[in-house]
Structure formats: C-alpha cells, structure tokens
Amino acid sequence: MDIENKLQEIVASAVKELYGADVNAAQITLQKTKKEFKGHYTLVTFPLLKISRKNPEQTAQEIGEHLLSKTSFIAEFNVIKGFLNLSVASEVWIELLDYIAAKPDFGFTPVGDNAPLFMVEYSSPNTNKPLHLGHVRNNLLGHSLCEVLKANGKRVVKTNIVNDRGIHICKSMLAWKKWGGGETPESSGKKGDHLIGDYYVLFDKKYKRELAELQSKGLSQKEAEEQSKLMAEAREMLLKWENGDKETRELWQKMNAWVYRGFDETYKKLGVDFDKIYYESNTYLAGKQEVERGLAEGKFYRKDDSSVWADLTPYGLDHKLLLRNDGTSVYMTQDIGTAKLRFDDYPINTMIYVVGNEQNYHFQVLSILLDMLGFEFGKGLVHFSYGMVELPEGKMKSREGTVVDADDLIAEMVETARETSKELGKLDDCTPEEADDIARIIGLGALKYFILKVDPKKNMTFNPKESIDFNGNTGPFIQYTHARIRSILRKAAEQGIAIPEKLNKSLVLSEKEEGLVQMLAEFDAVVKQAGAEYNVSLIGNYVYDLVKEYNQFYHDYQILREENEALRAFRLSLSRNIALTIKKGMRLFGIEVPERM
After folding, report:
1. What is the DSSP letter of 341?
2. Structural domain includes residue 236
C-alpha cells in the first residue's frame, strides 16, 4: 500500500479533468510536508504550470479544491506560495497501519535463490596485534552493511581476509623467539592476540633503541635503518617463511593459532561472524602467479634490481611496485590473488571492500590492475570507504601500544552501562543474571549505535560516556523506548485488552498519530535507500527520529487509560508496530533491544 503512488494517481486524474492534459508520474513532484506547515505531502505545482496556464497559487488552489470534492483520500489542504500541502484522511492512515501490522517483515525484501550475490569483506586483521577501536568500527560497519543488503533481498557472503604473513608478523615472531622465554597464553593468563601484540610493541621498542644507538655514533636515520641487525633478522625470517623453512613455519602456526582463538572471542562479543575466511598465506602465491603472467604478457615490467612494477601513468597515477627485488609480495599482489580466488569460488555480482579511507588509492589501483590482467570484475569492485575513529584524546598508534583495545572497550562499555542503569534504578527489579544481561545489551548497544549512526564517510570521535546517555541520540535511549512500549503491551494483555486485526476506520486521528503512521511507512524506503547508497547510518537516524516522535506522543496522549475503546486499540496497534520497527531497525545494526529495562 503506497500512499505516494496513490496520491500521484489522483493528482494526475485531477490535472486531466481540470486541464485536459495527460501527465506522467515524473511531472508530479511530491515531498513530505515541512514540519512548520500543516499537511502530510506537498505537491510542487511549478512543473504543471505549462499545462494549467495559470500562476502557481491558482493552480495549487484549483487542484486542492478538486481533490477535496472528488475523493475521500484528502481531508484538507492549504496553499503556501504555490505549494499545495495535502492532508491525507485519517481513514487512509488507519488502513495503512492495518496493512503494516499484517506484515511483520514490512520493510524487508525476501532473499530469492537467484538474487544478486554480494560478497562483503570486512575486519581484515593482522595476526601481530589484537583488534582495536578502528577494527570495531570496521567490523560493525561490515556486519551492518551485510544485514542491510540482506534486508534488500540480496544474497550475501560475509568474508574476512586475515593478514597472517609479512614483515609485521615476523617482528612479533622474532621478538617472542628472542625474549619470550616460552611464554604462552596459558602461562601468562593473557588472550593469545594480546600476548602476540605485546611482542609486536616490544620489537618496536628494541628497534627504536637500536636505531638511537646507531645514530648516536653519527649515522643518519636512513643509514641506521639499513644497518639495523634486528630488522635484518626480521627480513631473514620472512625469507625463511617464504621458502617454507620448517622451524619458522611451525612457530608461525603456533603463534597464529593463539591469535585466532583470541580473535574469535572478540568477534563473539561483538556479535559478528563470517561465512568464509581467506588467509593471505594462501592467496599471495596466486597473486604472484598473476603478476608473473602480467609480466610475461608485457603488461608489467621488471627493473634492473629484479623488482616488478606496473606503469599506471596512462591512468593519471604513478608506477606501482608489485614484487620486491627479493621476490616477496606486497599487499597489492596479495589482493590480486585474493580477488581471483574469490571470483573462482563464488558467482559474485558485486564485491565490496570495507576498508578505511586511507586506502582509497590502494583500491583505485587494485581495480585498474585487475582490469589490466583481463578480469571482467576489475572495474566493478566497490570500496566502502569510511573515516577514521578517534578518541577525545586523539589518534591511536599500535606500534607504541597506545591503541584502545577492543576487549577492554567492550568490558568498559558493559561496566559503564551497569553503573548508569543502577544509578537510574533500571535494574531494581532484576535478578543478578537479568542485570548482567541488561548491562551487556545496553553496553554493546551503546557502542554499536554510537559508531553506526555516523555517516561512514566521516571521521568520528568515540566518546564512551556520551554513548551511554539514556537521553538523546543514543542506543540506550532507543532501547529504553522499546522496553517502555513492551511494558505497555504487557499491561494491556494483563488487563485483557486485545488488539483487533482490523481497526475502526471511522476514527479521527490527531496530527501526531497520523504523522507516526506516516513515519512507520517510511521504514521501507529508508531500508532501500540505505542498501542502494551503502549508508547504514540512515537506519539509525530514522529509528532515532521515530523514537523521538513516539516519546512526544507517549507524553501527550493516553494509551491504556484512553476511554474510547477504538482509539485505545489504534494507539496500542501503533505502539506495537513502532516497537517492532525499532527492533527490526536495530537488528540491522546488530543491536538487541530488551523487553524490560
């Protein structure tokens, strides 16, 4: 049931009857009426003036009077400077609420067997450090984007590429080998990803100390880096790894296994998962083969030092390194191999990379290189580029150990939620188990909502305290409103008040009630827009606006105490469907909404 389409039809009919001209839907421009004016939809009359041969005010007045006299669809109208503001009859909104109530999945498109297949890559961690706040934004955006695409009827494969090889991995391995003393997650009591991250930081400290000593002897920064014994050992370890050295590979497998167990714990806490995980240790060889093929076909070139490059100057870019002079791969080579393997594995229609905006150039180049190599999918890659996330104190640096650890952040959010909820008396009637669960739901909801409500393209500052506020544009405010509505519905059930399948259409509704039904109906369009634009923040903004409007309604109108039974039934149905829409919207963010708070 699409009210805008119906309005376009009756306006087209009115124009035909008034002015004897056929008009198409494109000439009938409808907008949601601005809040300062009375009405639901505004007809922009300017595209119709050539047909009416009258000024905007006269045209609007004539169309408004015609609609009012010829159809029960319109209850009233007003004209403001040639704009025709139309108020749709209460009966139409009641029918629309019945329609939405009969469709629990309203706003969601079923996923068909032949629907387009979207593969979405997100997370992409390195096995030399634990997940941090930047990864949290990446994981939440990737997971939410997948949910929004599924809600739009797309088949989705959630994938992760683990950066499990390279010089940075060797730094952690070398530090553990030199100074670890056989330490394990079990002996230290640390999660495996944290333990390995500590050795990555340790390597950097030792390396900086070595550089400082070399520079104190008169060497330049560059000379010191070239003479560093520690970095030479790390490079030697990488070559041993690439050559399949047994001892190096066994150490690598052992340390990576610790990290994966740690990652899995964090993913579980965040509520994110993957259908398929790729590992760079398996994909880099496929990338090298493709680069060597491109070299043989004359698409790439080799320098005198044996390194392999691509000339991208015809595309307005520079020359890009693809293989180092010792034959080892760079990230670009690995991504070429990963892309090839993925398209071999799945009939992908659209490949989306959820990666920060500091990698915009990288994905521009990857798309060109895949196209140069003759892969049809090269030009169609989508880089879901998002801004950085910082704390009020500023940027984070993993080498210096100054990042905000994801596990610590989650624990802090849950604890803050517990303290805030306790202070506000929201846990008074809860058992200890219920209190734990509510603290977890609120803490994670606050974290996820605060991050996902921001336009992905924008940089953002994450403020833990601000995110847990029970007022304002926050997850807890939305969750509390859902719990409030569920409480009303429980009380109605306890009082034996049933909500009929069909509501009384003779009711005259308030502007607030009609406006809330109109907002409910917009959920479908918002989900479609979020999917088309790859902008999950639209869902958060919509749900917050809906919740804000409902809370004003709750403050101004009786629900259970309403004496008119038909009107009470309408308000209960309206409340129930708003709660369901909040739940569906938050589900797209991976956020749970509690039944009671």
Report:
1. H
2. yes
